Amino acid sequence: MRKDYARTLIVLLLAFSFIYVIWSYANSTTGRVQMLLVLGQETSRVDDVKAIADQLVLNIKEPVAVGDDSWRSVEDAYYWVVAHVAYRPDDNTVVTVLGERWVLLENERFKSPAETLRDGAGDCEDMAILLTCLLEAGGAKNVRTVVGVYRTGTEQHGHAWTEILTSTGWQILDPTTKWVNTKNAESYHGVAWFNSGGFGWLEGRRERVA
């Protein structure tokens, strides 16, 4: 009887420890970002924009070089997003990740391309997800949505943008600037990335962009 009691107690302690570790991770900054990455991949639905890619006749072949035919497709996709989606901050503090509802990073809510197109508006990550998916639908494989911070002097704020790999490196595409040739590339500091195929970390610093 004592052995059974001790065994049960050990199992309960192990279960409690496991739950505590998971809870602590989920409530840490790293855990929250990881959950955002899962959500980002889940909402990166390329099928939502295949018809638009076909309509724009996007034909992206890699490696992409700024100024070539593939880059012109990139520009067409970029300016289509800029023309059809207005910038609007989130107003909902609740998100759904794999069927569960969570409050993440204050009021962040990632929308799928279909939701952004339906609303005709979205914030930085919504516009970036839409653009990334549109470029994927157009044939790009080395393209990703990046989440991180934008720094200007002593100020910084959370931000998201699209990057595509070109012959000279990762090129920033930020639909919120409304200009495909992003200025102040040194102000963009990526932490992690995602697209329809997966997600990952940028090891504490953004990779060099063209």
UniProtKB/TrEMBL annotation:
Q: Describe the location of the Transglutaminase-like domain by residue ranges.
A: 72-175
Q: What PANTHER family does this protein map onto?
A: BLR5614 PROTEIN-RELATED
* Protein name per its UniProtKB record: Transglutaminase-like domain-containing protein
In which organism is this protein found? Hadarchaeum yellowstonense
